[in-house]
Design brief:
5-stranded antiparallel beta sheet, 4-stranded antiparallel beta sheet, single chain
């Protein structure tokens, strides 16, 4: 038995060129399929991770706005220009607005972040002049807006009740959809 194995190793026969080409082409096809599957899996995993991160950041922004709206409980709500946000005020007992107790919620076009500025806070002692809701992504200008719906009170330019329509387009990366990932979220809050 030992002789048979020893003789098998001593044979000087090899494989033909056709057998070698067939084996190499079959191996290259198998490796190509495996590498394509692995590459597609990593790419899909990354895309889903980025979308989940953007959706979480959108949820943070939406909850920041609704929390500020319900905690502040405004008497008057003014829309800002170009659908960039709104300003909330309380009314004193004699019916006048109290500008020292105003809060502004807006999308900052320069930084692409949501900012909440309160009038009764001394921002000179802070490094950031706004209480910003910082996210890793960026709010896309032109596709994002915060608008008000409802009836203005007695012909004035403020709302006492209505809904705030928030449309956010968030991007993560350097572009808007082509070389960066983007997601759009919409929500409405009543006040």
């Amino acid at each position: 038995m030992r002789n048979r194995f020893a003789n098998m190793w001593k044979r000087e026969e090899g494989v033909t060129l056709i057998e070698l080409i067939a084996v190499l082409s079959l191996m290259s096809m198998i490796l190509g399929i495996i590498s394509t599957t692995i590459f597609f899996g990593f790419r899909s995993y990354n895309t889903v991770g980025v979308e989940n991160r953007l959706r979480e950041e959108g949820d943070i922004l939406m909850s920041s706005i609704i929390t500020e709206l319900y905690v502040f409980a405004p008497d008057h709500v003014y829309p800002l220009a170009n659908g960039t946000g709104f300003r909330m005020l309380h009314v004193t007992a004699d019916g006048t607005e109290d500008p020292s107790d105003a809060t502004t919620v807006r999308i900052n076009a320069e930084t692409g972040q949501l900012e909440i500025q309160k009038a009764n806070v001394d921002y000179s002692k802070m490094a950031d002049p706004y209480q910003s809701t910082k996210i890793n992504g960026t709010i896309v200008q032109g596709l994002s807006s915060i608008t008000l719906e409802g009836d203005t009170a007695g012909g004035f330019d403020y709302y006492t009740t209505g809904s705030i329509n928030i449309k956010l387009a968030l991007t993560l990366g350097t572009g808007t959809g082509t070389d960066g990932s983007q997601i759009e979220l919409e929500s409405r809050f009543g006040f």
